[in-house]
Amino acid sequence: MVATLGHHFFRHHSRLVVSIAVLTSGHEWDSTLDSTARVCLSGTFVFLISYLWPCWRKPGAFPTVGRGGPVSAEWNRSVEMSMQCETTAKRAGNGDMGFFERYLTVWVFLCIIAGIVLGHVMTEPFQLIGRMEVAQVNLPVAILIWLMIVPMLLKIDFSAMHHVREHWKGVGVTLFVNWAVKPFSMALFGWIFIRGVFAPYLPAEQIDSYIAGLIILAAAPCTAMVFVWSHLSDGEPHFTLTQVALNDTIMIFAFAPIVGLLLGLSAITVPWATLFLSVLLYILIPVAFAQWWRSYLLGRGAESHLNRVLKRMHPVSLAALLATLVLLFGFQGDQILSQPLIIVMLAVPILIQVYFNSGLAYLLNRSLRVAHCVAAPSALIGASNFFELAVATAIVLFGFDSGAALATVVGVLVEVPVMLSVVKIANKTRNWYERGGAAAG
């Protein structure tokens, strides 16, 4: 399936493929792994064998939390599926946008102001926080990132992956866009705009770091907000849950190699040990802990107990995100004040890649006659980014005051408005999509 989609993409986008080949020619990729990296990688494989494999082989290994009930064994292979999906989504959906999520861009702007002011007024405390490191990991940031990520991962039910075959076309398209197109298209747009168009207006010493941040941002698909986007587009909730669980599984293995590959192709030094350490700290450990905690909560009080904990943890996660952003902008204040247009220039490749990848996923689903209620969340998952993980990785690899960290934060800044626009486009074009003969996925 992925091979078929790759052939289709190459036929219609061969110029893009050739451009990537030309731009990356002549660069060497250092694939040397030291002992620390090998230990982290070994731990990752142990996790797959001991935890995720039972979920895949035995759907009942973990309790399923789908609020709409189990998915039917056979789907109606007609346009009626879209109507059924819409009904299911409305019955199962608890993804209404909260007050914080709706105005996330406003909060980020406020964090920019607060961080810059506090960074100037409280210089010593910020420098002290910056020095609190162990093995290149800043401890306060690590705690904040875990508080951000764990509640999001707590929502993921890996046992939902056995539903993959019921929406195999939509899943195939999303995987293709997420892992074979999005990171590489972001790297290409970064090279074009950051190294090309905007290079005369950017600090030369930070250009590589900006590109690194963009690559890190695009290397992992979103885990939490996609449930909101899916609900707003009347997406099929079981497809969304399945796709997120599958993406999170792949992310454990693919995130570090993809980031390392693209950094190497961009002639940026790859700190492999630190990169794999970030995977261990911010993907592997949080996923394992969140799934253990989820199983424990479901065992004690079924879904209602899990939902109560999620409700309590939600403000903690949001506060951790805001605190992390304030710290980042405290260190980035001088750079932003001296060149405020940097944020606008970094936003350009991010915006282009979102519309490019969502449009590609949407059109591929339509050409494969996938139901709109699957195609819409497929396009949204294909375009969105796991910005919490990106921010954490950029800080670990390049530091608080790096261009990479700033680039990932710009991703947070534009996330809500641009994804809401993609939701609106998907909803507005539904009639056009279904006239193309979408049947089942």
- Could you name the CATH class? Mainly Alpha
Helix content: over 70%
Count of helical stretches: 18
Structural class from helices and strands? mainly alpha
Q: What shape does the CA trace take?
A: globular
Description of the structure:
Residues 1-84 and 86-95 have low confidence and may be disordered. The protein has helices at residues 2-12, 14-24, 35-57, 80-92, 99-102, 104-121, 123-131, 139-153, 168-197, 207-218, 225-232, 237-265, 272-338, 341-367, 372-383, 387-398, 403-428, 430-435, and strands at 133-134, 137-138. The longest helix is centred in the last third of the chain and has 67 residues, at 272-338. It is 76% helix and 1% strand. The two termini are 13 Å apart. Helix 6 (104-121) runs antiparallel to helix 17 (403-428) and helix 16 (387-398) runs antiparallel to helix 17. It has a two-stranded antiparallel ribbon. With 441 residues, the chain is mostly helical. The protein is built from 18 helices and 2 strands. The relative contact order is 0.17. It has one domain (78-435): Na+/H+ antiporter like fold (Up-down Bundle), CATH 1.20.1530.
